[in-house]
Amino acid sequence: MTTTSDAPAEPATRRPAAAAAAGGTAPAPGGGTDADLAVHLVRLGDDALVLGQRLCQWITRAPTVEEDLALSNIALDLIGHARTLLTRGGRLDGSGRTEDDLAFTRSEREFTNALLTELPGGDFAVTVARQLAYTHYAVLYYEALAGCADAELAAFGARAAKEVAFHRLHADRWTLRLGRGTPESARRMRRGLERVWPYTGELFDEDDVVRRLAASGTAPSPAPLRPVWERRVAEVVARAGLAVPAPSWQARGGRAGLHTEEFGPLIAELQSVHRQFPGGTW
Amino acid sequence: MSAGDAAVAPAGQEELLARFDALVAGGGTVEPRDWMPDGYRRMLIRQIAQHAHSEIIGMQPEGAWLTRAPSLHRKSVLIAKVQDEAGHGLYLYSAAETLGVDRADLLDALHRGQQRASATFNHPALTWADTGAVAWLTDGAAVINQAPLCRTSYGPYARAMRRVCQEEAFHVRQGYDLMRALCEGTPEQRAMAQDAVDRWWLPAVALMFGPPDTEAGGAGARTAAPGAAVSRRARAWGIKRHTNDELRQRFVDQCVPQAERLGLTLPDPAIRWNEERGHYDFTPVDWDVYRKALGDDTHWARQRIAHRRAAHEDGAWVREAAAAYAAREDTVPEEAA
Amino acid sequence: MNRTREGAPASWEVFLRARRGLAHQHVGSVRAADPDAALALARDLYTRRGDPLSLWVVRSDAVHAASPDEHDPYFAGARHKPYRYPEHFPPLTEKGPEGDDHE
Question: A31-274: which CATH number, 1.20.1260.10, 1.10.1420.10, 1.10.3880.10, 1.20.1250.20?
Fold first, then answer.
C-alpha cells in the first residue's frame, strides 16, 4: 500500500501552518529548490534526532532489559536517519555545515522538529503512543520519498521506510498489549494517546517550502498522506480496544522554531559536551 | 526444556561423579541435562549470574552519556555498545536458566543485594572520556578474562561467551579509538582523557580479574589461600582456565604499550618492563589494594542498584500488561502489519 | 508453562538461518509473554550483525526430548554398527584408502 509521490498538492484544509512566521525555517529568498530542500530535510532530520534523543533517555530505564534493547535499536536507526538528512541539508543550503554542526551548534530556536518528537517522555504508554503516531507517519512519508527523482534521497527513503516499518511493528505490538492488557495499562494507554494526539497534525503540515518542493516533484508533501495515516492508526487503536482521541486543538510551532519549554533542557543536554570543548575533535 | 532435571540415573553418586570428572578432565562439555555435582551447578549459577548482572549494571555508566555524546557518530557507536551489553546480559541470563534458575529470581536477588554485579561499576562515569576509558580498559580486561570462558566446561555458558567475545572486540576498539581522538584533540580534551584513565585504571586492573589468588600476584601465602582455593576448584571443573593473577598480568602487558601510543600515563609508578620475566612489573593487587578499589557502600554503588530497581518497579505495570495480554490472546498470533 | 508468576514471561528457543544454504540453527533463548513479542525480541537480540535470512521461535516447553536416563536405550545402539560406515569396507580404487575419493 502506498502513497503518492505524484499526488497533487492538495491544499491544506486545516489552519495554515504557522511556519514562516519565525525561526530558521523560511526558505532563503531566491535560494531556489536546493534551499527549499535543505529546509525540508533539516526538519525531517530534526524530527529523527530529537525523537532519537528522547528514546535514548529510556535506555537502562525500560520495563525490561529486552525493551532497553528494543528502544535502543529504534534510537540507533533514528540517529542514522538524522545523520543522513542533516548531512544532505547542510550540503544543500550552501552553509557547508556538517551533521554535527547542525546537531550541536544550533540554538534551540533554529531546530525545526515537530513538537510531537520533543514532548517529554512521560510513562511508557506516552512513548508507545508517540511511537505509534510517528512510525505510521514516517513509513508513509519515507515510502513516498523513495519515489522521488533524486536518486540519493530515494535510496535513503527506501532504506528508512524498511527500518521504520520494524519500529511500527513495535509500536503496534505495544499499543495492543497495553490497550488489551490490564485495566491499569489500558487507562495509561488511553491517557498516552490523549497526551500526544494534539501534536500529530504538525507532521502533515504544508507550508510554501513543502508546496514548492511537491509542485516541482522534488520531494513529496506529507499532507496527502494524512487520510491513510488516520485510517491505519485508527485500525490499530481499535484492535487495542481503544478509540483515537479527537482533540479539540492542534499544537504547532516546531517547524517555525517555536518549541516547548522542555525543549531547552533537551538541547542543552544534547550539546553539553560538544559545547564544553570548543575546537574539539571527536 | 526444563533445565533442572539432573538425572537420577541408575548409577551411584560416586560413579556419576567419576564420569563427570573424567568428562571435564578430558576437556569435554557439560550440557544442561547431564548429571553434575551441586557445587559445580552452584558455582556456575553464581558466576554466570554475576556476569549477567555486571552486563546490565554496566550499561548505566555509559548509558548516562548516550544523550550527551559529542558527535552523532559517537552517539551511534555508544548506543550500539550499550545495546550489546543488554544483549550480553540476556545471553547470560538465558545460559543461567539452563541450570534451573529463573531470571526473575536472579534479578530479585540483584535488587535485594543478595547477588552482585562486578564492583567495577560501583565507580562513577564523570566525564565523556569515561565512556572511552571504560571501553578501552574494563572491556579490554573483560576480553582477556572472557576469552578463556569461550572454552569453559559448561556448554550453554561457553556458547553465550563465544557470542559475547565476538562483540566485545568492537567495544575495546571503539573505546581506544575514542581515547585516541581525545588525545589528538585540544589540551582540554587530553586532560579529560588522562583524568578518566587515572580513575578507571585501578577498577580495571583490580576488580575485573577478581581478588589475588597467587603469591606471585602479590598476595601473601596466607592471604592468597582463600582466593587460590576457589580458583583451583573452578579450574579443576573447567569453569576457569587461568588464575586471576595470570590474566591480570596479561592485561597489564597489553595496556602499557597502548597507553604509550596514546600518550597517556597509567597511574601506577611501579609499571616498568622486566626483561627477566618478559613482563611488565606493576604494583601488586594485594588484598589492601583490592579492597580499596571495591568502592563498596558508596553513593555510586547504591545508586546503581537503586536505578535498576526503579526501572524494574516503574515497569511492573507494563510487564503485567504483557502477561495479561498473552494469557488472554493465548497463542493466536496477530497478523503482522 | 511452569512459570506462572505474575509478570514472568515464558521462555522461547530461538533458531536462526544465518545465511542462505544453512539450516536454521539453535542460537539461544528469549523470554517473552507471547509469540510475536518473542520473535521481535529474538530479532533484536540475535540479528544485530550480519545479514540473517530467517528466524524461528518455539516455546521452550514445547520441545520434547529424551531424558538423560533414556540416553542409552535411545542412542547406545548407534555405536556398535561399524558396517554403517564406508571405512568398514575395502576401498574401490587400486591405490588403497589413500587414493580413495580424494582429489
Answer: 1.20.1260.10
